[in-house]
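Re: that chain you flagged

S.,

Sorry for the slow reply, it's been a week of failed gels. I finally had a moment to sit down with the sequence you sent. For the record, here it is as I used it:
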Amino acid sequence: MMKKTLHDLLLHNDLTVPHQCDLKFGENMERFFALGAQESADNFTFEGITMSNRAEGKMVLYSGEGQIVFAVILLCSVIECLSLLEEDLSSTVKMTYRNMIKNETHYRFHMEGSHGKFFRDFVIDRIMHNEGRPSTHGNPWVLLYNWFGFQLRKKDKLELENLLKTVRNIECMVHIIHLN
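Prediction finished late last night. Pasting the structure tokens below so you have them in one place:
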């Protein structure tokens, strides 16, 4: 078991959420609602993250994937809210996005299955399909992204930057397993 910040986990690994996974929506909604309401996330950790290395170099998440999915959605939502407040994002915000979410055409986070492309397009790239209406099979991501956006629009620039820093520095308890 090792400790890493969420920033380091995403910076040094391409994480993949397998098609069959338990995102624990209810539990994670409560945790992330509490995080968004607080000034900081002292003692807020991601526990039970288990992953293994695939042949192509990607790390597959076997547990704790819901925490990572929610964190990526929250990060993308915070960055969008900051971009609405200021035209030119600070270098810290740009670096956080590049290091944790997407570096040019390289995505650091992937989801397998039918939701994967929609998640990437809607959450990370903010591409709307069907003439501006989200696809129905992606509705959990739309609802969650919009819910975060609604909560975050009440915050000012300093609060959003502090939240970004807090999420970036969340401590992750990671266990890497080796499968034959």
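What I noticed first: Helices lie at 6-11, 25-37, 65-85, 91-100, 114-124, 139-152, 157-168.

Talk soon,
D.
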